[in-house]
Design brief:
Elements (H helix, E strand, L loop, with lengths): L1 H10 L1 H32 L1 H5 L5 E4 L15 H7 L4 E15 L5 E9 L10 E4 L10 E5 H5 L21 E4 L2 E10 L9 E5 H7 L9 E6 L5 H12 L2 E4 H15 L2 H30 L1 H9 L4 H33 L12 H26 L10
Parallel strand pairs: 3-8, 5-7
Antiparallel strand pairs: 1-9, 1-10, 2-3, 2-6, 2-9, 4-7, 5-8, 6-7
Length: 386
């Protein structure tokens, strides 16, 4: 009977391909759009992930996410260093400054100032130069994506590709000379702005004059120290906010989830993909069943039970669902691979396979149910009519 069910399914090639294409489209949308959404949300806290050495981030209590900088006085650093359980605490400056390029253009950059002595909080991967080169006069390190694109030099050919910034090139940060001594690989940020690293003291000279310029205090806990207990002590002693790395990521992630339209936009796309896929697959599968009512009637007249007919329809639904799901997931993976070097955010964890698989399964169950009802209500006598 399984062989007959498959012959019935593939006998009408146009309807068979139509069902598979509908499920492929649904699977593609329900996998690709969440993958882009997850990639985008991961970028909101990518800077925190890149600074992997500290256990705790200390900041103003009003900070809502990683780019919501509310500067502190430098004296707060010494208060944190004096708390029991702190192995070391280092300053970090993070701010948006305009860079003036060689062609006179201005480009907003994420400028990160690292502790002059230890350079803690630097880029995770150096492609050219060494992080210690930041101790040279007027030195900065730029990220590779910014060096190739937004900070690149103009092409001598009108409309041509920009010439990447190289070690030894210079730019201006708030009317201060900055010489590139290294190229680093960092995770793209949410706004995809170039990232420029320098020392803390030099970053303060680049920044506009303010009474407070300390953005974050990076804390390393002593070995065996309970992080939750240490963050509580820091909050009580200083009145500042203190988060572990994961807590700070969660704070940033939740801010974008609750205060932007990103989840609604991507959720709408996924829902539309599900509805369109269900409509196409359901209607096509139902029309396929109507076209094969005579065959089902013959099987019923020969004594085939409703359970066997139900199993045949479910086999057909599982087959087209598996093929459509596999094609959709495969196209999503190919899309992500093709876009891996582009500015597009894309993250494809294994959980997405379960999510899209559950969605395709619901569509197949819906399509099968409307067909099963029609077959179960079928009278075998239809075979002998006119």
């Amino acid at each position: 009977m399984n062989h007959i069910a498959l012959k019935m399914l593939m006998g009408d090639k146009s309807k068979y391909i139509g069902i598979v294409m509908g499920l492929t489209f649904a699977s593609l949308i329900m996998t690709q759009q969440p993958a882009i959404f997850l990639g985008l949300m991961t970028r909101t806290y990518s800077f925190i992930s890149d600074v992997g050495l500290p256990d705790i981030w200390v900041m103003d209590s009003k900070v809502q996410f990683v780019d919501d900088i509310k500067p502190l006085q430098d004296t707060e650093l010494y208060r944190v260093r004096g708390i029991s359980g702190v192995e070391w605490a280092m300053p970090m400056y993070k701010g948006l400054l305009k860079a003036r390029l060689t062609d006179g253009r201005f480009q907003t950059c994420n400028v990160v100032g690292l502790d002059d002595a230890t350079l803690i909080g630097g880029p995770p991967v150096m492609l050219e130069g060494k992080i210690e080169d930041l101790r040279r006069s007027d030195s900065v390190i730029v990220d590779i994506d910014g060096a190739r694109d937004k900070l690149g030099k103009p092409s001598p050919i009108p409309g041509g590709k920009r010439i990447p910034l190289k070690v030894g090139d210079s730019l201006e940060l708030n009317d201060h000379r900055a010489i590139v001594v290294g190229i680093a690989k960092v995770s793209r940020t949410f706004q995809s702005q170039p990232v420029v690293y320098t020392t803390y003291s030099r970053a303060k000279s680049y920044a506009p004059r303010e009474r407070k310029l300390l953005s974050f205090i990076l804390v390393k806990a002593k070995k065996g120290q309970n992080l939750a207990e240490l963050t509580r002590r820091i909050r009580e002693a200083t009145g500042l906010a203190a988060y572990t790395q994961e807590e700070f990521k969660t704070l940033t992630y939740e801010y974008f989830m609750h205060n932007t339209g990103i989840p609604i936009n991507f959720g709408t796309s996924v829902l539309l993909g599900f509805i369109v896929g269900a409509a196409i697959a359901g209607q096509t599968f139902y029309n396929f069943t109507l076209g094969n009512l005579l065959q089902f009637g013959v099987l019923k007249a020969m004594g085939t039970s409703n359970w066997i007919l139900l199993r045949m329809i479910l086999l057909q639904a599982v087959l087209v669902g598996s093929i459509g799901y596999g094609l959709g997931v495969g196209l999503t993976a190919l899309f992500g691979h093709a876009m891996r070097h582009s500015i597009l955010a894309f993250r494809f964890p294994w959980q997405l396979l379960i999510f899209s698989g559950a969605g395709v399964s619901l569509i197949c169950v819906f399509a099968a149910m409307i067909s099963i009802v029609k077959v179960i209500r079928l009278e075998p006598a239809i075979v002998f009519k006119g």
